[in-house]
Amino acid sequence: MLVHEALRIPPGSGLTAEVIGHHLKSHVLVYDVGPIAQKADVPSVVLSHIEVNPKTWPDPAQRGLDSRVTVGRDLMTIPLSRK
Questions:
Q1: What are the contacts of 7-15 at 24+ separation with CB within 8 A?
Q2: Measured between alpha carbons, how far is residue 23 from residues 9, 27, 39, 68 in Å?
Q3: Residue 77 placed within a domain
Q4: Structural domain includes residue 58
Q5: Residues near 35 by Cβ (< 8 Å), separated by ≥ 6?
Q6: Predicted local confidence at residue 16, as pLDDT
Q7: Helix, strand or coil for residue 2?
Q8: Would 51 be classed as within a structural domain?
Q9: Which domain holds residue 24?
Q10: Does pTM top 0.85 for this prediction?
């Protein structure tokens, strides 16, 4: 399992170029999580650091990924199994 933070900067967000630059340097866009997880060959991905509307997050993270994507939430418990 890969637990990965994700960021999305919607068009017209009102953020300054400086703030956007900071976010892009210190976070991973949700569209890039799928390829990262695919390369890591993990059975599932849990997205963390999600802002609003969690239902819209799995699809962009799923791009380029064969594994399952779950949007994490505070105090969420995820059972793990041993291989």
A1: 7/49, 8/51, 8/57, 8/60
A2: 9, 6, 23, 26
A3: no
A4: yes
A5: 63, 64, 65
A6: 93
A7: strand
A8: yes
A9: 2-71
A10: no
Q: What is the pLDDT of residue 83?
A: 64
Name which of 47, 10, 1 is nearest 28 in CA terms.
47
Q: How many independent structural domains does the chain possess?
A: 1
Both structure tokens of 8: 């999305």
For 62, the token pair is: 């799923």
Share above pLDDT 90 across residues of the chain, in percent, rounded to a whole number: 48
* CA 72 from centre of chain: 9
Q: Which region, left, alpha or beta, applies to residue 69 given φ > 0 means left and ψ of -120 to 50 means alpha?
A: beta
Cα–Cα distances (Å) from 47 to 12, 21, 39, 42, 74, in that order, read 24, 21, 16, 13, 11
Q: Mean pLDDT, the chain, as a whole number? A: 89
